[in-house]
Amino acid sequence: MKFCFNLILISVLLFATSLKPIEKNDPPLQCYDPNYVEISNVTYKNETYSVVLMHRDGNRIRAKYFAAPDYNGNNVYQRYTSWSQSVGNIVLVSSGTYMDGRQVPVGLTIDNGIPVNQTLVPDRMDALTIVFATGGIVVSNLKDGDLSVTGGGVDPGRKYNIRKSSIDLQDFMDWARSQEATVFQTHLLVYKNALTVSSYNSVTTPRERRFLAVGKDEDGKIVHVIVHCPQNSSIYDGAKKTLDFLNNFKDIEVTFMINLDTGSQDVFELHNSDCSRNNAIKGTQQLSTAVNLLSYYFQ
Fold it and tell me: Which residue has the higher pLDDT, 267 or 14?
């Protein structure tokens, strides 16, 4: 019995010493380096703006877009959840662009190289948005007909006019497939630091507005900026005020600005650097209701 007792005592002691106590000096949980993300609420000309400014230098901040369900039957929310658990370090996730009554993306849409909607909207939606597998985002103004791409063996000097040429459209889609790029169409509000939307051809219904702007800061470095305007306004008024705010208060030269849905698909979730929820910008709908999602994460 003494031998048995000693054996049990030794086993208990070994188990106890294998448990690591929680140290007060353990580093706090961190979703991202706060030097790359600035979250602020700003009052400018008696208007309040909630701003998430993300620095793209070093390619640490990256974008990922989910445009549609996959071929395995996983919807956008399920795809995002699975991906975010494997990637971690989520900065924010937002509803993206427009859907029709059948929950199909409006306009040309390619998801990670796979065509979702091959019908190009011939007018109005001038922003052809490309989200690269590497996490960058660019926009081409379809009115200009001068889309250019690189990689996949294409001629970098070629200009694609995908609204006028079916050959250009097919070649562009082949390129997107080879590069696993994600592509969608949406309204172009600002291009090359100038308004491209007017008061007579835009949605006039007043509501909260949320925009994605990409441009260069005062040091010439690329920044991605989410701007939320809680004051009800038309798209034109909201875009005009936001461009003025970014130019003159934030000293950002805007390369392009597009609209993010704040209607029936008003989804937005923002995290602090310690992974806690930040309610400076908050959607009114649950993440699970989204039919497309734009996410930023830290690599």
Answer: 267
The DSSP 8-state label assigned to residue 249 in this structure reads T
Rounded CA-CA distance 203/214 in Å is 22
CA-CA distance, 281 to 249, in Å (whole number)? 19
Q: What is the pLDDT of residue 203?
A: 63
Who contacts 249 (Cβ-Cβ below 8 Å, separation ≥6)? 42, 44
Instruction: Report yes or no: 151 and 137 within 8 Å, Cβ to Cβ.
Output: no
Token pair listed for 123: 């007018």
Read off φ and ψ for residue 113, nearest 5 degrees.
Answer: 90, -10
Please report the pLDDT score of residue 103 as a whole number.
77
Q: Give which of 82, 48, 32, 111 is closest to 270, Cα–Cα.
A: 32
For residues 92 and 80, is the Cβ–Cβ distance under 8 A? no
List, for residues 273-295, the tens digit of each pLDDT value: 999 999 999 999 999 988 899 99
Q: How far apart are the first and last CA of the chain?
A: 58
| DSSP, res 27 | P
List helix spans (H) across the chain: 2-18, 76-87, 166-179, 235-248
* Higher-scoring residue by pLDDT: 294, 20: 294
pTM of the model: 0.87
Q: How far apart are CA 192 and CA 1, in angstroms?
A: 85
Question: In this structure, how many other beta carbons lie within 10 angstroms of the beta carbon of residue 109?
Answer: 25
